[in-house]
Design a protein that fits this description.
With 108 residues, the chain is an alpha/beta fold. It has five helices and four strands.
């Protein structure tokens, strides 16, 4: 089993496209499990549309938002409870084996 940390709040059309992408991934890799970082009020209804995926997910709630104009380096320092920061920390702390951060190309 591989546990992946997913920031579902970043990027265009998030979190919808993130969850739809996870559903496709899960069909091909049914042993995968997901830690989803984002706003439960938004994520839960979308996840319920994918019942098979829902059983493979654990949601870690955060509602700390980062503006699309904020530099990634600034966001990481100033928003410790953001989905971006928490996703990175899940891998850094060896809770998850991999991650997906859709909105931070400039960080890498």
């Amino acid at each position: 089993m591989t546990l992946l940390a997913i920031d579902v709040m970043g990027g265009d059309d998030a979190p919808l496209v993130c969850i739809e992408g996870m559903a496709i991934f899960y069909k091909n890799f049914p042993d995968a499990r997901f830690l989803i970082f984002g706003d439960e009020k938004i994520v839960v209804p979308l996840l319920r549309q994918h019942k098979n995926l829902e059983i493979a997910c654990e949601i870690i709630h955060t509602d700390e938002l980062i503006s699309s104009t904020t530099k990634p380096s600034t966001a990481l320092r100033q928003f410790p409870k953001s989905s971006m920061r928490m996703t990175l920390e899940a891998v850094a702390n060896k809770v998850a084996q991999g991650l997906f951060l859709p909105a931070i190309q400039g960080l890498i």
